[in-house]
Amino acid sequence: MITVEHLSKRYGDVLAVDDLSFTIEDGHIYGFLGPNGAGKSTTLNIITGCLAATSGDIKIDGHDIYEEEREAKKLIGYLPEIPPLYVDQTPREYLKFVAEAKGVKKADIEAEIDRVIDETHITEMQNRLIKHLSKGYRQRVGISQALIGNPSVIILDEPTVGLDPMQIIEIRDLIAELGKKHTVILSSHILSEIQAICEKVLIIYKGKLVAFDNIENLGKTMSEGNQIEILSGGDPLETIELLERNTAITCFEQKEMIDGYNSFKLTTSNSNPYEICEELFVAFAGKGIPLVKLNPIKTTLEDIFIELTSEEDEDALYGGPEAIEPAEEKAIPEQEAR
Ligand code: ADP
Ligand code: MG
């Protein structure tokens, strides 16, 4: 279990991590989701003991990352955003170096290397120079060094960045496999990636934790936001009648007329607003009502981040079933991360 309490990190004037508190339970794959610059790498570098925090407490299975550094670090395997590979070595040589550095007993080193090579499926590449490996294989070597010493938690910072689609699928499958034996924290700025692999997700935006939930609940939040703008040439009552008939339209509001057309903004529970556009097109055409504009607006990840951080949504924060300590009232006014 990892507990993070009131973690903050300041780089000069930049508040990169702003009072983060959360708990990671054993045995799940967690997604750490946020746009570029949100503070993901900073947080992961601190949790793994690679970077000092400005303030806050971190415990790995009860071991304080500063006071009991050795014990805490032993429990975590880390693949940083930029993996520390020595490209003039072979994977096998490199893994030997890592095993020694991590303090694996001399007698156990060869078996440990065999184990991680097998687990990351790099057997055929183990004696080639790392510089001659594809990016996908290099990333596997990066993951294999995180597995040396068999730590209970594996932390991977944006492991699929720069890979081609086929390599991405392979790395995702590998991560899913790792999730059966380890607690995994996977950071990404891509929602679909987190949705594909993770069971639970923490969303971080501008250094703050804005949501922590099961992936299904987050999916619901996402689809609730899809909207469609329409301009109808029919009279308002006729238009409203047609909109009310579509059960996937959860609500709509009439906007100001535009150039003599009735304007409406619809919200749909369908995660694909294009499907509703098709249905509306057919329904309006059937009644002979011209639709001169039919504009689906898919909620972007950025929209979700903004919505989650907006003040009126504050009740929805920390809405998940996770045991997160309620944030205490802050005595000091929040500082802008600028
Ligand atoms: P992410 O991994 O989510 O993209 P980072 O943790 O890398 O975010 O960065 C968070 C913020 O901290 C950004 O505004 C970034 O510019 C800033 N930052 C990161 N590392 C440094 C550093 N070494 N010095 C100064 N600012 C930094
Ligand atoms: Mg990063």
From TrEMBL:
The keyword Transcription regulation is assigned to this record: no
InterPro entries in the cross-refs: AAA+_ATPase, ABC_transporter-like_ATP-bd, P-loop_NTPase
Gene Ontology MF terms: ATP binding; ATP hydrolysis activity
Renumbered residue ranges of the record's region Disordered: 315-338
Keyword Transport (UniProt): yes
Keywords per UniProt: ATP-binding, Nucleotide-binding, Transport
Domain ABC transporter: from-to ranges: 2-231
UniProt lineage: Bacteria, Bacillati, Bacillota, Clostridia, Lachnospirales
Family: Belongs to the ABC transporter superfamily.
Name of the protein in question: ABC-2 type transport system ATP-binding protein
Species of provenance: Pseudobutyrivibrio xylanivorans DSM 14809
Biased composition (Basic and acidic residues): 327-338
PROSITE patterns: ABC_TRANSPORTER_2
